Amino acid sequence: MRPDGPNIRMIPEGDDRERLVCGACGYVVYDNPKVIVGAICGFGERTLLCRRGIEPQRGFWTMPVGYMELHETTEQGAQREVWEEAGARVEIDGLLAVYSIPEISQVHMIYRAHMLTPDFAAGPESLEVGLFAWDEIPWDDLAYPNVRWSLEYDRDMRGKSGFPPRGRPR
User: Which end of the chain is more exposed for a tag (fewer CB within 10 A), N or C?
Assistant: First the structure.
């Protein structure tokens, strides 16, 4: 690839959509969806939530969630996000939901996890972190619809195993 790189928007031969292409060497940039990983984490009957310290949605509550990194499994990514955002160590129990969100070119993989200890602390991307009983969850201040979807499905599936991961509600 040349230093001036891909700078022509066109449909490459054999493709069906526009992409950025280098006019000099033909290199094609494939801009694909991002994978987001996270977990609904429980300790006893309480759920771990983080108040976002960064945009978008700074100040709103979410489960620990973020972009998957290279060379990690989705489960490892979810555990890492819980550690980075909430300072908690968890064990993954299973896949709770997969949300395909084409409007923002993302796929969210949300796991169920249980905290190994009641210890947690706000990471650099969180203003605060807390363990909430169901009736204490700040429902009006959730960052995104998938947070509510995940919390509700987790509650519906409590005590159950072998259930299918939930998709995006219609």
Answer: C
- The CB density around residue 83, as the number of other CB atoms within 10 Å, is 15
Query: Is residue 167 assigned to a domain?
Result: no
Q: By the 8 A CB rule, do 120 and 85 touch?
A: no
**3-class SS at 54?**
coil
Give me the CATH number covering residue 82: 3.90.79.10
pLDDT tens for 72-103 read 999 999 999 999 999 999 999 999 999 999 99
Domain that holds residue 3: 1-31
- Residue pLDDT, tens place only, 17-34: 999 999 888 899 998 999
Pick the closest to residue 154 from 118, 112, 108, 100 (CA basis): 112
CA 123, CA 163: separation in Å to the nearest integer?
32
Q: Tell me which DSSP letter residue 142 carries.
A: B
CB atoms near residue 115 (< 10 Å): 22
